[in-house]
Amino acid sequence: MGLLDQRFENGNVFVTSLENLLNWARLSSLYQMQFGLACCAIEMMAASASDFDIMRFGIIPRATPRQADVMFVAGTVTLKMASRIKRLYDQMAEPRYIISMGSCANCGGPYWEHGYHVLKGVDRVIPVDVYVPGCPPRPEALLEGIIKLQEKVRKESLVKKPA
Amino acid sequence: MTAEEILNSLKAKFGDAIVEAKLDAPQPWIVVNPSRTKEIAFFLRDDPATRFDYMMCLSGVDYNNGKLGIVYHLFSMVHRHKIVLKAFCTKEQPHIQSVTSVWATANWHEREAFDMYGIVIDEHPDLRRILLPYDWEGHPLRKDYQVPEFYNGMKVPY
Amino acid sequence: MIETKSLPTQYASQPGPVQTSSGKTLRTDEMIINMGPQHPSTHGVLRLEIVVEGEIIIDVIPHIGYLHRCFEKHAEHMTNYQQVIPYCDRLDYCAAINDEHSYVLAVERMLKIELPERVEYIRVVMAELQRIASHLIAVGTFGIDAGAFTPFLYAFHDRELILDLFEMTCGARLLYNYFWIGGLSHDIPPQFVDKAKQFCTYFRPRIKEFNDLLTYNEIFVKRTANVGVLPKDVALNYASSGPMLRGSGINWDLRRDDPYSVYHKLQWEPQIGKGEMGTVGDVWDRHIVRMREMEVSLSIIEQALAALPEGNVQAAIPKRIRPDAGEVYARTETPRGELGFYVISDGSGTPFRVKARAPAFVNLSVLPAISRGCMIADLVLIAGSVDIVLGQVDR
Q1: Does C342 sit within 8 Å of B59, measured CB to CB?
Q2: DSSP secondary structure string, B118-140?
Q3: Taking a C-beta distance cutoff of 8 angstroms, is the pair C338, C359 a contact?
Q4: How far is the C-alpha of B41 from the C-alpha of B110, rounded, in Å?
């Protein structure tokens, strides 16, 4: 990490702002709410397996939304499931982040035209931070989405409320 | 048994409950009376010559001229033969008798036919929607279905 | 000390009030627990409403439809039959090639196309590779259900090698759009045959390693033997198929008994459950059927690669797909069971009706019947052994 490895020459003391420290702590340990909806969930599982390994980013799956920081909405959100996703989002404690994974969660995906039961994008019910395109996105694409989220968290400010 | 022999044995037992048949199609079918599907199904399952003990599929169809129907694909593990049964009804009178007591797998298939097409399955033990939410209005796979604008506050079309 | 009645290994489905040693009767009551759509072990968005008395289950009511993506409506509105194939992929997203195989089989039967031999052999190789990949997901996540995390990592690492083979051929890892009506979208690249053979030699000892790790592990055997027994007559009445049916001891495999493609030219045997660790038709049997099927798939792949003829894989693709008015029901053996497509054509270029008979939908309807009288922890394993994929259940 850029913060740490430059600072240990001066006798294990480094000076930083509280904002940077908090943001660094938050982005290095984003606990994920373990749930997947459809095909993108298989790529999410492949990303958490040993070949791509999202645990090295600090992302550990937690079964309950109460302990989670980030939720990957991986897969198609249907109208029946949308109210449950809203409820899960409400149960997450702040600061909370949403990564919308796959084109179904971004905008309805291949089901945009005739899907009477498909919600055309999860951002119609919950606010999304990062959109990862793909159908399904490769695990590397998901990792890039996570890195983008980490950059977003790094720029957060304690005084300004998040959007 | 060939389709013709099955048709003859059905006609011998049930007479006019067998409405028509098309035996020259690649997968021949027999049309039955929609209010007597259960006894015909029991006969097909239990008669030793036919022994249709495996229901492969049950599909609802909308034939686009006011006619709805259910198509049963049956298979016999014992004799390795197949047959297709069809039962038609109209949109004004969408009633077809259930075969859940014959093949337990028909339970969920018939609930889906009800959900998607609005075909009311008589004598079904638990007829309610299966795939769509319980407060959904309309039957989506009908050819004249209009997609609703909103569902519980969420905009449905793109 | 509370003494319960001595229960048989398959618990009594109506446990009844409990007698304490002092002679008093402890009144118990039913409770409804919701194993909701978000749950780490329901393999997707499935909701199970469980009626329990204590820890023992009286009834399970599955609620599905949380992933209903209107496949059949899309199939009726696509401009031609070819455009339905990507939607078929997304039905059973763990085994996309097998879904495509079933659908193109149905349409090709309606069109009465004669396929080149090369296409058939490549289709068999791809279908069996996909079967191994799908079974790896099944047994890996099943290990997580039982509490074992390492088999999941082993399974997904081996699966990456199979996905590399697919990516080399058609560019996609999970959802391919590879089988086209009358042929394939791309021919296999020159290095495919060698890499596939390398994979087969690499993977065989890995199956044995996996079995030593999970399948014959004493804890796993104790948790899965005699649990969720599916009797033969119930299995047939509920139209189960695939490993659910073969695990109950019924020797039935569509690749041999209702043959399609070139499976009848290759030498292989379906695997059935024999009740080695418990009763015939229990959860362990279904698991060992899946493990043994992976070995059988390896031998099918090697035979098909050895017999692969030359040819043009796009020779038989029709310029315009317009079947005559008629209907067909075609079924294939996917890793989860019998996937059938009932396609009705009205003579135009768009399908009139496409019904997907999904094996997971039909196998899931057995769940209430086989899980009465077991405990909640057993229910997780029984639901995992049915091997559902919600995209297929809800379509």
Answers
A1: yes
A2: --EEET-TT---SSS-TT--S-T
A3: yes
A4: 14
Domains of chain B, start order: 3-155 (3.30.460.80)
Quickly state the pLDDT bin for C42 (edges 50, 70, 90). low
Other beta carbons within 10 angstroms of residue A121's beta carbon come to 21
Interface of C with A (CB under 8 A): 36-40, 44-45, 65-70, 73-74, 77, 86-87, 90, 93-94, 137, 141, 152-153, 156-157, 159-160, 163, 173-175, 390-391
Tell whether B151 lies on the interface with A, counting CB pairs under 8 A.
yes
Q: What is the ipTM of this complex?
A: 0.94
pTM above 0.90, yes or no: yes
Which of C70, C94, C157 lies closest to A42 in CB terms?
Answer: C94
Q: Which positions 101-120 of A are in contact with C (Cβ < 8 Å)?
A: 110-111, 113-118
Stretch C355-384: mean pLDDT, rounded? 92
C38 Cα to chain B: minimum distance (Å)? 17
Write down the pLDDT at residue C1: 33
Segment C193-205, tens digit of pLDDT: 999 999 999 999 9
Model confidence band, residue C54 (pLDDT cutoffs 50, 70, 90): confident
Cross-chain Cβ contact C237/B105 below 8 Å: yes
- The predicted model gives C321-327 an average pLDDT of 89
Residue A7 clears pLDDT 80, i.e. is over it:
no
Provide the 10 A C-beta neighbour count for residue C365. 23
Domains of chain C as residue ranges with CATH: 71-394 (1.10.645.10)
Residues 6+ apart with CB under 8 A from C147: none
Q: Which residue in A has a C-alpha nearest to residue C144's C-alpha? A: A45
How deeply is C301 buried, as exposed, middle or buried, from its count of CB atoms within 10 A (0-12, 13-18, 19+)? buried
> If DSSP codes are grouped into helix, strand and coil, which group holds residue A46?
helix
